[in-house]
Design brief:
Rossmann fold, elongated, alpha/beta, 18% strand, 9 helices, 5-stranded parallel beta sheet, 2 domains
Length: 309
Amino acid sequence: MSTMTLCSGLYELMDSYDGFIMDQWGVLHNGLQAYDGVMETLNHLKQRKKQVVILSNSAKRSEDNVERLKKLGIKPGLYKAVVTAGEVTWQGLKQQKDPPFKDIGSKCFLISRPDDRALLAGLDVEVVDDVEQAEFILITGFDSPNKKLEDLDADFKKAVVKRLPAYCANPDMVTVYGHERAIGPGAVAKRYHELGGMAHLIGKPHKTIFRYALGLFDDIIPSRVLVIGDSLQHDIAGAIGVDLDSAFITAGIHANAFKGDMSPEQKRKVMEHLAQSYGGIRPNWVLDSLIWQTAEAALRERERARMKE
């Protein structure tokens, strides 16, 4: 059983890692604004010449996420690259050379947020309204809370009979937007699978996207790379799957399990319960949020520096 060590800030881990693979939602921002301390942390990493790759299950392409991050104040100079499940999906649909995208056709039954066809831009794909006319299903989002998963059953049952493959460009079971939690695209793919359909999940926790991210670092060996995420199921499990160390952020999608006034021992018990409930997925490190160091730690460091003078 691996040990989960509580940390107060990323500063404590600086000597152990040179590369950082970071999730977006729940770690850097909540969709509306960057979390407190994130900009300071990214600036400290840059000053120390650490490399950051942002790895997201976003169903949008990488460039769309770069623009989103800009609007939240997170500029491209603070990280090396953005890798998204949407980008991997787009490339697969465009090329249709390798499994699971090989020669799948061009007629698509799209399940997304209302009027969101951004991922199809630049692709030779025709969206059809009748699932029986489709050659594949593409899942990029879900119109929650206006729809329920059961509303898809009639179309899904027809698609199962036709043996249509489904491609989910964002495996997240739950999405975070502000303080709201909603049904994620991954839950839609799971529903299709439960009804007998073949659903391909693109993105975390699957190895392909992590290996792609690792390949973007310059001269950093995997043992010096840390994955930081708020999802045990996607970020932490994905890190374990490719033998990378990981740090779990408690303030993301599992935030309701943690209370602000918890003692370290209480926090450890909650983490152990969470780990067991997800099949024994345990991070190496646990942080409340992506901050550089607490005010108390910074004060102690200044005091030590003063005494050395």
